[in-house]
Design brief:
The protein has 6 helices and 8 strands; from the N terminus they run H-E-E-E-H-E-E-H-E-H-H-H-E-E. It has 177 residues and is of the alpha/beta class.
């Protein structure tokens, strides 16, 4: 009978181990922004240690695998804040990002003025996202999260408005199809 009083303590200790099998947080790179082009993907991460990476690939998944191999870390995409579409199939790409990469539904979708890879190498993802948020606060721009944009692309009109970004930040709205 005395041995049974330790059973709840042992069960609680077993439950508190939680995420130990998932590895250490520092074993992953957390994607903050991605520029998806027709034949390349540029990725920017939350960590200042991880420089933006451009990978030539035929698909975002192929690019992610190549970036994981070159960086030596798994890439977690669930916290992605910004996706910049640069000459790729918009609806297919956004559907893939939402369903396969499981990016946040609040992830902002934008287009670059000029080269998207160059844009992400000259401005931080935080600055670009901030420029979009300010434009929204000033009512220059409507909702441009991935769910809203994808809904517009798959809707009757087959188009959606997204912010156009440059080195100077937000420069206006652009219609994509």
């Amino acid at each position: 009978m005395k041995g049974l009083r330790f059973v709840p303590a042992l069960m609680a200790a077993g439950l508190l181990t939680g995420c130990a099998s998932d590895g250490n947080v520092s074993d992953k790179s957390y994607l903050r922004a991605a520029v998806i082009g027709a034949d390349s993907v540029t990725m920017s991460f939350f960590s200042e240690e991880d420089e933006p990476v451009t990978v030539s690939a035929d698909s975002p998944e192929e690019a992610r695998s190549a970036a994981e191999l070159s960086g030596g870390k798994k890439i977690f995409t669930g916290y992605t804040e910004l996706v910049i579409l640069d000459g790729c199939d918009s609806a297919d790409t956004l559907g893939f990002m939402l369903n396969e990469w499981k990016v946040s539904p609040s992830c902002i979708v934008a287009c670059p003025r000029g080269s998207g890879a160059e844009l992400l190498s000259t401005r931080t993802a935080e600055e670009l996202e901030g420029a979009v948020r300010v434009a929204q606060e000033q009512e220059l721009l409507g909702r441009c999260d991935i769910v809203t944009v994808l809904g517009g692309l798959l809707g009757r009109d087959g188009a959606a408005e997204v912010p156009e970004l440059s080195r100077d930040g937000y420069v206006g709205k652009k219609s994509i199809q």
